[in-house]
Amino acid sequence: MLALSRKKNEALVINNNVEVTILEIKGDQVKIGIEAPREVPVYRKEVYLQIQQSNKEAMDNAISQENMDALKNLF
Predict the structure, then answer these.
(1) Nearest to 31, CA basis, from 41, 21, 40
(2) What is the side-by-side order of every strand in the sheet holding 18-26?
(3) Nearest CA among 46, 31, 13 for reference residue 2
(4) Please, which contacts does 50-56 make with residues 24 or more away whose CB atoms are closer than 8 Å?
(5) What is the Cα–Cα distance from 16 to 18, expressed in whole angstroms?
(6) Residue 1 DSSP one-character state
(7) Residue of 20, 26, 24 lying closest to 7 (CA atoms)
(8) What is the value of pTM for the model shown?
(9) Is 62 helix (H, G, I), strand (E, B) or coil?
(10) CA nearest 39: which of 14, 11, 18?
């Protein structure tokens, strides 16, 4: 992990096309702005993890359904 110190209105650039700017600092809370191309998804980590879990469950269900269909075709 790369740890950087930034002050208000300072930014960092990721992969030449994503810019993260510190907008505001209040106590232990930091407000950031993210500029990225539309095709680059940006999620809060807790939302990203929920999406990943939902995708895994959907895939597990699809695989189970495929297995059930395959078994039905055997008989």
Answers:
(1) 21
(2) 11-14, 18-26, 29-35
(3) 13
(4) none
(5) 6
(6) -
(7) 24
(8) 0.69
(9) helix
(10) 18
* Residue 44, both tokens: 């809060």
- Residue range 13-42, pLDDT digits in tens: 999 999 999 999 999 999 999 999 999 999
CA distance 58 to 53: 9
Of 54, 32, 56, 55, which is closest to residue 44 (Cα–Cα)? Answer: 32
Q: Which amino acid is at 23?
A: L
CA dist 35 → 2, 22, 38, 55, 58 (Å):
20, 12, 9, 26, 31
| Cβ atoms of residues 20 and 32 within 8 Å | yes
Identify the residue with better confidence: 55 or 73. 55
* Predicted pLDDT at 70: 75
> What is the residue whose two structure tokens read 């232990």?
28
